[in-house]
Amino acid sequence: MAAIAVGWREWAALPELGLPRLRAKLDTGARSSALHVERQWRFVEAGAPWVGFALVARLHAGEVEAAAAIVDERMVTDSGGHRTSRVFVRTKLRLAGIEREIEMNLADRCGMRFPLLLGRTALADAFVVDPAGSFLHRRRRMRRPPETPRDV
């Protein structure tokens, strides 16, 4: 399958987390992907560690809560050189008509313009980033059927 060209920013979805539309920055300089969360909490489900989290997505009314199994916890270095321990989860990403499973960490990205950062591991083997492109894959709008004349 040939790689699909995407812009440096796109609309993406994380359907398993109840997030049908998020502004995403595609960053080939970042290895891992990150989702902004307002808060997170841990719990155990069927003997396995899970994380619950909440975020405010601009396109949704109010706060969205979701949960996912923890797949890892590791140190991540941000763009400012600060190292922090972050929880990693796996979920489905829908981007440019392609759906694939990705791994991402949960982070406080409150000072960032994009709640979702997609790093090169999420993009590998499926997408190529056009740094001059922006929102190349806008969500298609449903066409309304033509109106029928009303009988008077």
TrEMBL record:
The keyword Nucleus does not apply. This is ATP-dependent zinc protease. Transmembrane segments: none annotated. It comes from the Bacteria. The keyword Hydrolase applies. One of its GO terms (molecular function) is peptidase activity. One of its GO terms (biological process) is proteolysis. Signal peptide: none annotated. The lineage of its organism: Bacteria, Pseudomonadati, Pseudomonadota, Gammaproteobacteria, Lysobacterales. Residues 6-138 form the Retropepsin-like aspartic endopeptidase domain. Keywords: Hydrolase, Protease. InterPro entries: Asp_endopeptidase, Peptidase_aspartic_dom_sf.
